[in-house]
Amino acid sequence: MSDFKSSVAEFWERVPCGTRGVAPAEGSREFFASIERDRDAKEPFIARFADFAAWRGKKVLEVGVGAATDFVKFARHGARLYGVDLTPHAWTWLAGACPWKA
Fold first, then answer.
1. How far apart are CA 54 and CA 42, in angstroms?
2. d(Cα 11, Cα 57) in Å, to the nearest integer?
3. Of all helices (H) and strands (E), which one includes residue 49?
4. Are 7 and 56 in contact (CB under 8 A)?
5. Is the torsion defined by CA of 14, 43, 76, 61 positive or negative?
6. Rounded to an integer, what is the distance from CA 90 to the centroid of its chain?
């Protein structure tokens, strides 16, 4: 991995997008619910832009899965999902956030 790519991965591993100030224990249902509520409150335009329901049955590639907030919303609406992320932490979170794991 290039030095630049490594530095980007290290940054997002330390400070994943949308997770700053989340109080519940990492990995808990409350943790993921808190991230989602916070994101919806701060960035309400994402739902309109992404139009999650429009992707039912379609393939979606999310580049930069992060805390899995959008990935899970696409899943809830029936998209066929693929994702990539530079950080191992993202994959740990994705395993905990997925509704089919509940």
1. 23
2. 34
3. helix 45-50
4. no
5. negative
6. 7
Tell me the residue type at 55.
W
Q: Convert the pLDDT of each residue in 25-46 to its tens digit.
A: 777 888 888 889 998 999 999 9
* N-to-C CA span, the chain: 34
**54 close to 74: Cβ distance less than 8 angstroms:** no
- Nearest-angstrom CA–CA distance, 81 and 63: 11
- Which ranges of the chain have pLDDT less than 50? 102
Tokens of 54: 């429009």
CB within 8 Å of 17: residues ≥ 6 apart: 64, 66, 67
For residue 52, what are the contacts with CB-CB under 8 A and spacing of at least 6? 70, 73, 74, 76, 77, 79
What whole-number distance in Å separates Cα of residue 68 and Cα of residue 2?
25
Cα–Cα distance between 4 and 20 in angstroms, integer? Answer: 23
Query: Quick one: DSSP state of residue 25?
Result: P
